[in-house]
Design brief:
- The structure is a single chain.
- This protein is α/β, with parallel strands linked by helices and 287 residues long.
- The chain contains twelve helices and nine strands.
């Protein structure tokens, strides 16, 4: 009997850990009704990811935009994905250890595009398309959260935030509860991510949702059959975002699981015969 009681308690704690906050689904309708361009509508390398050119192109095409924000060493909020500058700028330094003045000397993928300030990106978008902001966990991520929130409060457009780090979302839950927030995740047990085993287990299985109470779950589309993700979806019915979709076939495969789609490397509005995946677009997906 004691064993049964313990198992029931553990099961109850597990289900509680998966808890989301699905009551604000209507506010996410713009993201369900619009495809979301991953790091802007880029075609690496001529129009680089997370560049003003890529965001302008997405706005012109009428796509929603996903982008990444993090802080420089001198507290400037910029739009950039990777922890280091190596892949995109050929510089081995970490972005959060470099000042914005130093970043200004760099170019994205050999083009004339620079790493943009977040405020300049917001000015360019101007509320014309839905905006999905991923807050990176590199460096002082809670300060990144605070500054992102302050800037978005002055933005006149539809936006939501997401992060792989549950404590980023916990910060928004406590300090900006009106902001729609989403938990990013993947199957960390199958990906090469530098994290302790217990963290990979908890994050893969969404078992820190009770800290962040996310409004939506953004899960790696290739692991859409992952048990805890599907259980969370069935029990709490959050809006589910697919990342990153790279072909019409992947888009169609995900329609039975996801309601919103973050895409890259093809036109999701084109027919199957017209859509093409650009393998050069594959970059570092994770934190």
């Amino acid at each position: 009997m004691t064993v049964i009681v313990i198992l029931l308690i553990l099961a109850a704690l597990y289900l509680f850990a998966l808890r989301t906050n699905p009551g604000r689904r209507e506010r996410m309708r713009p993201f369900i009704e619009n495809y979301i361009a991953h790091r802007g509508l880029h075609d690496n390398p001529s129009i680089p990811e997370n560049s003003l050119a890529a965001f302008a192109r997405a706005v012109e095409a009428g796509f929603g935009i996903e982008l990444d924000v993090q802080l420089t060493a001198d507290d400037q909020l910029v739009v950039f994905h990777d922890e280091t500058l190596q892949r995109v700028c050929g510089d081995p330094r970490k972005l959060h250890e470099v000042t914005y003045g130093e970043l200004s000397d760099l170019r994205l993928l050999g083009t004339e595009e620079r790493i943009p300030l977040f405020r300049d990106v917001l000015d360019l978008i101007g509320g014309r398309v839905p905006l999905l902001v991923e807050i990176k966990s590199e460096g002082r991520y809670l300060e990144t959260s605070r500054r992102t929130d302050a800037m978005l409060r002055e933005y006149r457009g539809v936006y939501i935030v997401e992060s792989f780090h549950p404590m980023v979302l916990n910060w928004f839950r406590k300090n900006s509860p009106e902001t729609i927030r989403g938990q990013l995740s993947t199957d960390y047990t199958k990906e090469r991510v530098r994290r302790p085993g217990y963290q990979r287990f908890l994050l893969t299985n969404l078992m820190l949702d009770f800290l962040s109470a996310p409004d939506f779950i953004a899960y790696d589309r290739q692991y859409r059959r992952q048990f805890s993700f599907r259980l969370c979806k069935a029990l709490y019915k959050p809006v589910c975002f697919a990342w990153t979709v790279r072909s019409r076939e992947q888009l169609e495969e995900g329609r039975d699981t996801f309601q919103a789609f973050i895409f890259e490397g093809f036109d999701p509005r084109a027919s199957v015969s017209d859509s093409r995946v650009n393998d050069n677009n594959r970059g570092d997906e994770y934190e």
